[in-house]
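Researcher: Let's do a round of design. I'm pasting the structure tokens now; please hold your answer until I've finished.
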């Protein structure tokens, strides 16, 4: 049975199941969910814990099966944790996980927790994952998206008795905080805890206690943001020019390959052109998006952006992408920056500017005569 991350606390209050599967690529939130299950289990008498990490194709699953089927000499109840960093248990692992899942039903002496990275659609349709889902609780730990990050920070600050100022100034503070920690939730958590130590709440101060100013946050919060090219793509299509420049600077500082950044931008441009061409041939937009494997966040962005892009603008973008392809591979181009990163900035902002522009209104009928 699938469970949302924010439902875990209420679920644990109603009772503990014997099998949990946690999957996702956000280490902080996965660890917090794991800690909550462990704490509840300890309160229910699960006093012993064993951990197994599946590494390599020749991992011995018999040890895991033995742990799940045996009782400790020192404890009546035990926790068995199985970490699969690759998300691929292999043929033997698939059989073992199905066996463990089926054996979890009615087993009050062993709590099994399976820890996995983010899984694709194909992996979620495998027999072993279906068995885990059918016989226990499956919890997907999703990252906190940039738009939700300020509210997440505010909630975490509130949990330790702190808050930002009311109104626009407080929103500026949260946006500044989010810019500093984007893509690095574990570091964001640490920065929030640091604010709790630097500016402790004075219980005697009344309603003004725990209020953080923009100056305090600016002086304390380090720039620990981490970016990836996929989030860059979303920011470009959303027309967020300032964020795009910040992300490109961050990717360059982190040593990301120029070729990979260019490929991501160019593929978005090519995909926009393919969808636009399909629509020109009479296909409805939803069908054109599906045929080009555009879905999720990008589907919504494409729907908003496509009306703003004319055939001529897309042709210009394709030409620019072709030019930048040569620059990042060492070629020089007239009227273009000489370095790859500068050229990537120009290409990204060219697309970003078109995506952020308001669509042109159709001319009134009398003006077209």
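Researcher: That's everything. Go ahead.
Model: Designed sequence:
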């Amino acid at each position: 049975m699938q469970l949302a991350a924010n439902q875990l606390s209420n679920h644990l209050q109603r009772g503990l199941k014997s099998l949990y599967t946690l999957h996702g690529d956000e280490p902080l939130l996965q660890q917090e969910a794991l800690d909550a299950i462990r704490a509840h289990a300890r309160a229910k008498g699960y006093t012993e814990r064993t951990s197994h990490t599946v590494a390599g194709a020749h991992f011995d699953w018999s040890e895991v099966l033995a742990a799940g089927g045996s009782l400790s000499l020192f404890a009546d109840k035990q926790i068995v944790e199985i970490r699969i960093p690759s998300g691929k248990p292999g043929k033997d692992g698939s059989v073992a996980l199905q066996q463990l899942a089926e054996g979890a039903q009615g087993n009050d002496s062993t709590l099994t927790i399976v820890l996995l990275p983010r899984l694709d659609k194909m992996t979620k349709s495998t027999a072993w994952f279906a068995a885990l889902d059918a016989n226990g609780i499956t919890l997907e730990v999703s990252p906190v998206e940039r738009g939700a990050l300020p509210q997440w920070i505010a909630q975490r600050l509130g949990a330790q008795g702190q808050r930002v100022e009311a109104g626009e100034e407080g929103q500026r503070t949260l946006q500044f905080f989010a810019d500093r920690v984007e893509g690095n939730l574990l570091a964001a958590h640490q920065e929030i805890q640091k604010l709790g130590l630097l500016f402790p709440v004075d219980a005697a101060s009344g309603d003004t206690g725990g209020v953080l100013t923009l100056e305090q946050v600016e002086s304390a919060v380090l720039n620990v943001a981490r970016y990836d090219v996929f989030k860059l793509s979303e920011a470009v299509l959303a027309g967020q020019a300032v964020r795009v420049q910040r992300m490109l600077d961050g990717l360059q500082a982190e040593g990301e390959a120029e070729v990979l950044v260019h490929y991501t931008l160019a593929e978005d441009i090519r995909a926009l052109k393919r969808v636009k061409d399909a629509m020109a041939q009479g296909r409805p937009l939803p069908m054109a998006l599906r045929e080009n494997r555009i879905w999720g966040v990008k589907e919504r962005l494409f729907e908003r952006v496509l009306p703003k892009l004319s055939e001529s603008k897309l042709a210009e973008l394709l030409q620019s992408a072709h030019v930048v392809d040569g620059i990042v591979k060492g070629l020089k181009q007239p009227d273009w920056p000489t370095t790859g990163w500068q050229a990537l900035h120009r290409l990204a902002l060219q697309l970003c500017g078109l995506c952020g522009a308001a669509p042109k209104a159709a001319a009134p009928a009398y003006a077209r005569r």
